[in-house]
Amino acid sequence: MSYSNLYERPGPRGILRNRVLAAAVAVVLLALAYLVYVRFDEKEQWAAAKWTPLLRADVWSTFILPGLAGTLGAAVTGVVLAGLFGLAFGTARMSEHRWIRVPAATVVEFFRSVPLLLLIFFAFFGSYAVLGVNISAFTAVVFGLTLYNGSVIAEIVRAGVLSLPRGQSEAAYAMGMRKGQVMRLVLLPQAIKAMLPALVSQFIVLLKDSALGLIVGYDELVDRGLNGIAANFSNVIPAAILIAGIFILINLSLDRLAHRLGRR
To answer: pLDDT value at position 96?
Structure first.
């Protein structure tokens, strides 16, 4: 489907206006960047003494790499479980049976509405009151990531399947397929490609949300890398820039992977 008829190409005056606006925005951004640089320089945040520790092997092996392993461990586990949760409840919300559809919708809407921080907090501190056992910080973080992001993924799955033309399912039913076969063999394979950008975006959100594990003392990148380094070397800003750069590289890698998968 083409949307080219909904876009009117700008004329000479429009092109000139766009270029002027782009130049003005670039000037403002450069001015802000220079202001930040000057302010940091006044506070000696660019001093070599604050950045040199970030190049030491022992700093990486003690703070950054263990924190990165914790973040990736929680994120990968959360992605797998949230994906399964979203797939199960997304398809359940499209069930023809009310006794399946309504409870699934209730679960999805409930966990979408509760802040992730509260889910992690409740899982960690409320587990003993409910189950009689204390769960680990890792389990609490994965619990929150799974339920919150899984509920969002369930809506992505439902929207992706419902966006397909009705003729797809009608043709499959005409061939004698059952509803489960239609969903598994016809609708989901086509919907996944359409859902991929939204799914990757949600997985990136999940990765960043793993930083909320610091509220229960989970050993992840922000807590171990940022707080640990800053506490030992008094370089909060350089450490924060480094941690942010690591997150950006991971997210860009995920985005690149999604583009490659989308072209297949």
So the answer is: 82
